[in-house]
Every structure is written in C-alpha cells, then in structure tokens.
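Reminder to self: tokens first, then the designed residues, so the page reads top to bottom the way the pipeline ran.
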C-alpha cells in the first residue's frame, strides 16, 4: 500500500499480480490466450505502427499477433516485449494481416473449395483473404443459398484430398441454417472432410464493423422488410432494385481495406476454414 492511498483499505485482498515481461526472442514458445495458438517466435516486425510477433506452430504454419500481454509461457501469463538489442523491421502485409510473400505466383487450384452463401460473401472473402488463398491454391465459390446444401455436398463428393470448408450466414441456435447444417453433418463419411462454420449475422454485410462505415451500429430493420433494402433505405441510398442492392454493396465493400475493418466473429471463422483446407492429409 502506498502512503498516498488515503481512506479505508482492504488488507485481506491479495496483492496485485505483476505479469512477467519476456523478451520475444527466436525460439521462445508461447500460447496466445485469445485463440489458443501455440508457436515459437520466428520474427519480430513493425507493421502499421504496431509491433508484431510471428509464431510458427509445429507444422511450420505462421500467424502474427500484436506484441504485448495476452500470452502464456508454460501456463504462466506473460507480456512479450521486444528484445532491447533487436531491430524491428517493417513487413509488407496482405489485407488479412499475413506476411506478403514476395514474387509469389498463384498455385494451380486445389480440388478443395471454400463455399459461401452468396456473391457478396465471396467478394468480401476475396478482398481480405485473396492473396493468401491464391498462394494456397484455394478457390472461393458462392452457393446462392444453402437450402440444398446436403445435395450439393453429395454432388461434390468430398474426401481427404477434396475437402470442403463452408461459411454460413446466421448460424445461431434455432435458426433454419443451424438445422440444415445439423442434417448435413449426419451424412456418413463427411465429418473429417467437410467443415461448416458460421457467423451470427443475418447477412455478411453486418460483418463489416460499424466504425468502418462511420456509424455507431447497424440499423435495426423490421422483419416485414427485406433486410438489404431496409439497410440501404436507412442509409438514404437507392434501394428498390437489384441494381440498387448491388451498387449499395459495392459502396460498403469499398470501405473495407483489411481484416481490421471486419468483426472478429467472421475473421476467426474464415481463418479456421483456411487452416482446415491447408492442413496435411493424415
């Protein structure tokens, strides 16, 4: 207790825990608390004014995280700090936040696919993760809805070298989408070859952070009104035709420059799908 802390004091309260600072030197193995990612420090850089540490897992897959607190070392919470004698380099990054691979050419497309519900979903994924997907040789395809998802998956014939990662809108308890996915996952033989993930939003438009658009929150639209038309009307934009919808979406998409403009609930799901499709076949 400091002498300038006047007033009643709770002398039974445990002392404030001091988190140990650990230098982010090459080879130090830590776990990111938020994602569970475990990896060894391979690089320390500066990107967009932020210090970034890259961690490589046992499969040599690398992810980047902000330097600072939020890590575990042998189960102990620690704060990663830049080594005093290490110069921090600025790295070129893709819109998804990954390190940009210099002079890389797109791989020949693999048989595996990412399926999304519609054209707007595909355009958003392409804008943020397109560089990464071309390096991995993964193609994103729109489904035009998931009402016939089980039949579509059966026609695709997934297997160990032909995996499917499917991103579904409004995958919340009790929704139509949740029931469709539950029925799909009962199909024999697909559990290891198909991964279905989802976000909670009615439409992928809502995965754009309101702050990215300069608003406090997405407008609330009555159920009696078609959602996209209601959104555009609330913005004061043309909203009555299919062309209006398309132009409105392009205005929204133009505000997205990187992963930082999207909600974490979408970011995590897309990264999960990419990891699933690029994992070695066991």
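Designed residues (282 positions):
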């Amino acid at each position: 207790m400091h002498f300038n802390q006047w007033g009643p004091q709770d002398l039974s309260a445990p002392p404030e825990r001091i988190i140990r600072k650990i230098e982010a030197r090459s080879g130090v193995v830590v776990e990111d608390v938020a994602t569970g990612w475990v990896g060894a420090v391979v690089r320390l850089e500066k990107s967009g004014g932020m210090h970034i540490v890259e961690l490589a897992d046992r499969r040599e897959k690398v992810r980047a995280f902000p330097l600072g607190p939020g890590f575990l070392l042998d189960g102990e919470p620690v704060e990663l700090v830049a080594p005093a004698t290490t110069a921090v380099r600025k790295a070129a990054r893709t819109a998804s936040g990954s390190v940009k691979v210099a002079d890389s050419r797109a791989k020949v497309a693999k048989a595996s696919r990412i399926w999304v519900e519609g054209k707007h979903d595909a355009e958003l994924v392409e804008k943020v993760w397109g560089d990464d997907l071309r390096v991995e040789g993964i193609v994103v395809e729109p489904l035009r809805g998931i009402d016939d998802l089980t039949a579509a998956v059966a026609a695709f014939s997934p297997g160990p070298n032909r995996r499917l990662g499917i991103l579904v809108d409004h995958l919340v308890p009790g929704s139509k989408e949740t029931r469709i996915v539950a029925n799909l996952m009962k199909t024999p033989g697909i559990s290891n070859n198909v991964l279905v993930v989802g976000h909670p939003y009615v439409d992928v438009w809502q995965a754009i952070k309101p702050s990215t658009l300069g608003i406090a929150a997405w407008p609330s639209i009555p159920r009696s009104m078609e959602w996209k038309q209601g959104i555009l009307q609330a913005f004061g934009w043309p909203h009555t035709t299919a062309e209006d919808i398309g132009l409105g979406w392009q205005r929204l998409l133009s505000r997205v420059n990187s992963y930082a403009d999207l909600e974490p609930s979408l970011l995590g799901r897309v990264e999960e799908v990419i990891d699933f499709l690029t994992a070695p076949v066991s």
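Confidence is low (pLDDT under 50) at residues 1-11.
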